[in-house]
Every structure is written in structure tokens, then in C-alpha cells.
Specification:
255 residues, alpha/beta, TIM Barrel, 2 domains, three-stranded parallel sheet, two-stranded parallel sheet, 9 helices, 9 strands, 41% helix, 10% strand, globular, binds zinc ion
Length: 255
Amino acid sequence: MYHRVGDSENDWERRYCVTPKRFAQHMHMLHSKGYRPCGIEQFAQWVGGTAALPSGSFLLTFDDGFEGVYEHARPVLLKLGWTASVFLVTQLIGQEDVWDELNNPSSRRHRLLDRMQIAEMVGEGFSFHSHSRHHLDLTTLSDAQLEEELLGSRRDIEDLLERPTPYLAYPFGRHDSRVQKAAHAAGYVAAFSTKPGFNRPGQERFSILRLDVAGTDSAGVLGRKMALGSNIGSIGAMARYTIGRVCHRLGLGYS
Ligand SMILES: [Zn+2]
């Protein structure tokens, strides 16, 4: 799970924003290790147990639909013959990330993809899905507001792409059982959380797991996160994992 690709001004931004150079290093590392991105439909079928995926498959997602995905990530991906799935805030297309203004210490706003850029990317094989209408914490909304954010954004995507999307990413990753039920009722078949871990066939479809890629993650850290299925990609975490596996194989108790 990536958010913005571009330059960052402070530590808060570096948490969610990867520089173009670093993004390219990440993708080239994944490519060289034999990882290959799959489409979101293939991924959903695999989770549902109706399709197989080659080993090394991963799903590449971008939340929020920042312009940097078009400007910086897209050229790197296209060179590799890769695409990605992007979750759009459907009432802010072509505008800015107003929801983060109060969270960002420098109150800086960033441009979001516009309709022309989205149309071009659809033609190149990128897919676009819902990140709600206004990027609100869905768990705080009334039932009526919740329906407006979930069903409304599905309709917005349908207006934009001439087909509705069955996939949602929860804004801020925030969800509870009421939000999950509302997403199901609004016609989604799967929703992406920000909880880390490996997905498996049979994974709860309204709580799909994702690994968080921070702007401070080197390609090495990302590689370890991918190997461990964890948001902790330190060398120590990898060492503990390796020691644990060796001890398990030797029949020694180590956890
Ligand atoms: Zn978001």
C-alpha cells in the first residue's frame, strides 16, 4: 500500500510519501526478486478460492489517487510492463487532499488525479476503485452518511469509468462491523484495510490485509517487509524470523 509519490517536506509527509527515486528502487528490487503484480480481480478470485496465483504475486495499491501516481509511479511501472490499482476519493477528483490539512504540520495540500489522467491510465491498464467520497472516518458517520459515502462513491466511479467498482479501501483504514456490513450492502465484494499481514485464500473479504510502505523504507526494508508479511522490516525482525524457522526445523522451542 502506497499513498503519495513525490517530494516531502517534513517527517509526517515522509511517513506517507515515497520519493520518485525510491519508488523506482522499490519496484526494481521487487522485479529482481521475482515478484510480479497481479490484477485486483485475480487477487479477489484467489482470496475467494476460485483462482490460483503464481508464487511471488503481489497486489500493488495506491490510496487517495495523488497526481504523483500519474507523474512518477506510472512511468516506472509501465517500463516494467506493470500496472496498479488506485483507490480514489471520488468527490475530490482533480482537487486536493483537504482531509489531511490538519494532520500535516506544514498544512500543505497535494494535487489529486484529474479525469484526463485517470482516463489515460485506464487505457494503460491501471484500475480505479473507491476510497469513499470525501475521505471521512467511516466509523464516525450516521447510517445515512455512511451509505452516501459508500454507495455514492460506487456511483461516482460508474459515472467516471462506465462501470461500478466492487472494491473499496477504507479511509485511514478505519472500519468496524457496521462499516463492513454497510460496504457489503452498498454492493462491494471486498474492502481493503491497513492491517498488515499476508492474505490467504479464505481471508475475510471486508478486511483485506496490506503492508504499509513508508517514505523512509529503503528497498532492503521493503524486501524484508514483503518476506515477513509485516510492517516491521528491520534486519533484527528478519534475523528473529530466520532463527525461529531454523529452531522450528531442528525441533527446538523458540518463539
Ligand atoms: Zn486515504
